[in-house]
Structures are given as C-alpha cells and as structure tokens.
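User: Could you go from structure to sequence for me? I need the amino acid at each position, not a summary. Structure tokens:
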C-alpha cells in the first residue's frame, strides 16, 4: 500500500502523553457506505475513527479494520489507530454496559478500544430500539445515574478492554459531579460535544480545557445532511465569510471551518464518504488562520445545536439547558 497522503498530529495531555489525532473520521453513515469510505480514509491517512453502537455499522467498520490492519490480514499496526466507541443511553444501566462493550469489540474485531464514552448523560429505557418512545413521541427515560455507569466503565480499564474512558454530551455541572464523586478512580479524559461556528460552545470548551480534559468536536461542519434539516436553515459551508477566508488561504470552506476548530485546541471528527472531501478534511495542518479570521468565524455563532436530543428534555440529566456563553467577567465558568 502507498504511504498515507496526509497525517494528523495527536493531541497531548499536560503530562505529555499522546491522546487522539486532531482530525478523526466521523462514521454516521449507512452500513453499505461506510466500508468504501473507511477504506479510502485509511489509505489517505486517517488513524482516528469515531464509532458508536448507535450508528449500527460497527460490523462493517470491523471488516475494513481486519482488511487493513494487523488485527486481520492487513499491514498497518493496530496501535497506530485511535478507535473510539460509545455506550448509548439504553445501555447505561451497569448491568447492560458490559454486553454493549462486548458487542462493539466483537463487531470491530478488536481486543481493546482506545476510548469508550458514555454517549449521553440521560438514561433511556432498556430496549432493542435505540430511541424507545412514549405515546407523545418523547423518549422513554430511565432514572439510571451516569455515576453508576462510570463505575462500571472503570472496571473495563482495569481489565484492559479499554485504554481510556470519557463522556459525551455532558455539561459542566455533570462533568464536575463526576470529578467530585468520592471514590472514583479514573477521571473522564475527554468530553465529546457538538462544536461548530454555529455552536461555538465556548463556556464548556474553556471549562474542559482548564481541567486538562480534551474536547472532541462532533458535527464540526454543522451536520448539513442531518435528516431533520429544514428548508431555509442556514448552511455553514455556504456562509460568505467562510468562503472569503477560504479564498484568502486557497482552501475550501470545510478546511477553513475544521482549521478554526483545531486552532481553538480541540479535535474534530467530520464525516465524509467522498474521497476528495476526505482528503481535504485531513489536509489542514499546513496553514493557519489569522486572529481576525478566527474572530470572524466565531461571530457566526447562533448557539443553535444540530443535535438537541429533544426527546430527552424531561430527563433530570438532560444536558443542554446550561447557558453556552461566558457571562460577564467569566462568572459562568466554574
Ligand atoms: N457523540 C455524539 O452524540 C455524536 C452526535 C453526532 C455525531 N457524532 C459524530 O460526529 C461525526 C460528525 O458529525 P456529522 O456527521 O453529523 O456532521 P459533520 O461532520 O459536521 O457533517 C457531515 C456532512 O458534511 C459533508 N461534508 C464532509 N466533508 C465535506 C467537505 N469537505 N465539503 C463539503 N461537505 C462536506 C458530508 O457529506 P459527504 O459525505 O457527501 O462528504 C456530510 O453530509 C459523526 O459522523 C459521528 O461520528 C457524535
């Protein structure tokens, strides 16, 4: 196989240890599309793959990992990769998490994950469906406490089936609660949350960065193909300012937006199944945005999420009621 065309550097913890690569591959896509996309991505040089049981395509991802890496017939060392997966809300009960992790490991064909995340802080009723619904269309909630899920995840680190554990979609208070719970032996190493110029999420990012908890940004391009997109919704990659800045640096709008993310100090996991876009999205480490560019892009903020998990709004652990802005004098940052 030819040498990878592009490489992403890795994030580092304050102690110097390597964490995930700054650019990873998002994998929200149909099982029949993910195989060719992942094959192409690995050939281009992607080594950070963001999976989730929720995507229902981990078997197909596993097939490609077996083909390309030393876990199967391939030549790329498995240890070159950083592979994440997640426990979905219906499996947060400590009696369910092990089964969920075992299914993920079997599907991906891996002995260990680099990172396992609690995908959402709110529990959903155990079900074969990922989104069990009440008659009014809201999600069937469970009162499972994510601290109990966390204790179970700690045992996975001890037994060696995951290297790191972290959270996703947690707000500052929820993270702080985990940090403050007596007797926990591992702190969350990362918080994977939505961040894009339409949802700059400043307060949470600063909160995490001050605690050496790297942020991984999902939907970094604004998730333009989300199934619930409405006609007339603004399209991030078509914003004039993004195009102008792209022209200035001879880059595509997506490259500008992703570069804006990594320059703010977090990792980004754009999804693409298009070979040219996959390459573009990884090719962002040979230019820099100016301070003015950074400000102009941040000014696009609408505090509008692409993924609101609205059906879980009644859960006491629904995470998106906190303000996303920093209040006067930084008072809102704990
Ligand atoms: N933790 C969580 O709860 C959570 C929630 C949502 C998502 N995620 C993760 O985050 C990943 C990314 O989020 P997302 O897939 O929703 O949104 P996204 O990465 O912001 O946007 C993906 C869309 O942008 C298009 N695109 C990609 N590169 C492009 C480029 N260079 N130029 C123009 N268009 C481009 C893609 O189309 P093409 O494929 O046609 O290029 C796709 O329609 C997911 O795949 C998933 O792994 C996590």
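Assistant: Here is the amino acid at each position, in order:
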């Amino acid at each position: 196989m030819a040498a990878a065309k592009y490489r992403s550097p890795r994030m580092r913890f304050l102690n110097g240890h390597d964490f995930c690569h700054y650019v990873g591959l998002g994998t929200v896509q149909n099982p029949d599309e993910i195989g060719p996309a992942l094959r192409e991505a690995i050939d281009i040089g992607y080594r950070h793959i963001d999976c989730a049981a929720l995507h229902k395509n981990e078997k197909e991802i596993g097939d490609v990992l077996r083909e390309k890496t030393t876990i199967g017939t391939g030549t790329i060392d498995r240890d070159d990769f950083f592979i994440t997966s997640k426990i979905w809300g219906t499996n947060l009960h400590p009696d369910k998490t092990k089964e969920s992790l075992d299914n993920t490991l079997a599907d991906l064909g891996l002995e260990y994950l680099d990172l396992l995340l609690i995908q959402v802080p709110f529990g959903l009723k155990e079900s074969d469906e990922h989104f069990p619904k009440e008659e009014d269309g809201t999600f069937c909630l469970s009162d499972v406490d994510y601290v109990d899920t966390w204790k179970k995840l700690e045992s996975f680190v001890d037994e060696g089936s995951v290297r790191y554990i972290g959270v996703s979609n947690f707000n500052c208070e929820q993270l702080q609660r985990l940090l403050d719970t007596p007797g926990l032996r591992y702190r969350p190493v990362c918080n994977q949350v939505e961040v894009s110029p339409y949802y700059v999420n400043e307060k949470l990012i600063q909160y995490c960065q001050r605690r050496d908890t790297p942020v991984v940004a999902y939907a970094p391009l604004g998730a333009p193909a989300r199934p619930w997109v409405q006609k007339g919704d603004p399209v991030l990659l078509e914003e004039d300012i993004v195009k102008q800045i792209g022209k200035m640096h001879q880059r595509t709008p997506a490259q500008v937006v992703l570069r804006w993310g990594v320059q703010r100090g977090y990792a980004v996991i754009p999804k693409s199944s298009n070979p040219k876009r996959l390459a573009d999205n990884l090719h962002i480490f040979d230019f820099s945005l100016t301070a003015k560019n950074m400000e102009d892009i941040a000014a696009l903020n609408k505090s509008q999420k692409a993924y609101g998990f609205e059906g879980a709004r009644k859960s006491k652990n629904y995470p998106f009621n906190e303000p996303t802005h920093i209040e006067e004098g930084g008072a809102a940052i704990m």
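One structural detail worth keeping in mind: Residues 94-108 form the longest helix (15 residues).
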